[in-house]
Amino acid sequence: MEQNASAKPHKRRAKSTTRKAGIKLGRPTKATPELLQAILDDLARGLTREQACAINGVSRSNFSLWELRPEFEDLRARAQAARILALMERKQQYAEAHLDWKSVAWDLERTFKDQFADPNKAPALQVNQMFNHLHGNQAELEEARKRLDETKALQLGRKAASEQSVQEAQGADNSSGMS
User: Fold this and answer.
1) Cα three-residue angle 65-71-72, rounded to 5 degrees
2) Residue 43 burial (CB < 10 Å; 0-12/13-18/19+)?
């Protein structure tokens, strides 16, 4: 009986020493650099996360867990950067071939709003998204309407100021050209 009592702490010590020594227990990860690169390449081609994972035989939940691990913390940033580079290269190719590059620009604008969206359009998009989430609460609806009106007024003010500065610049060019 004394032998069993001393055996349990011995097993615990063995596990703790293997962890301290850096020996990993359990099944090895499927997250090989080659597999991660294949998923990143598919994301850069425009596939969704679910599609890129499915095509490479990885569950979406596993990929999400991989993204949380410290050694893969830049995984999302690498995938986004690869996607942006691919879209910008395609836009350049379309422009050089005199093709319509606006679809690529639209994709960049919608996918990476913070970086490529028109800042003048962003407040209106945010207000519109807020309207989509309102479900009959009259007070919230009235508040959202007020914010929408304020946003529209702000945009009209910006547009008027921009037009005025253009007219002033044209007036200055005309007056200096006459001298």
Assistant:
1) 50
2) buried
- Pair 108, 131 in one domain: no
Distance CA 87, CA 94 (A): 10
Separation of alpha carbons 127 and 76, rounded Å: 28
Q: What is the pTM of this model?
A: 0.45
Question: Hey, is 142 helix, strand or coil?
Answer: helix
Q: Give yes or no for a contact between 124 and 151, defined as CB atoms under 8 angstroms apart.
A: yes
Contact 143, 156 (CB under 8 A): no
Quote the tokens at residue 20.
């301290």
Q: Find the DSSP H helices in 69-101.
A: 75-96
Provide the residue range defining the domain that includes 153.
118-179
- What are the pLDDT digits (tens) for 139-167? 777 787 888 888 888 888 888 887 887 77
Q: What is the pLDDT of residues 81-96, one digit of tens each?
A: 888 888 888 888 988 9
Residue 96: inside a domain = yes
35 and 109 inside one domain = yes
For residue 23, the Cα-to-chain-centroid distance in whole angstroms is 36
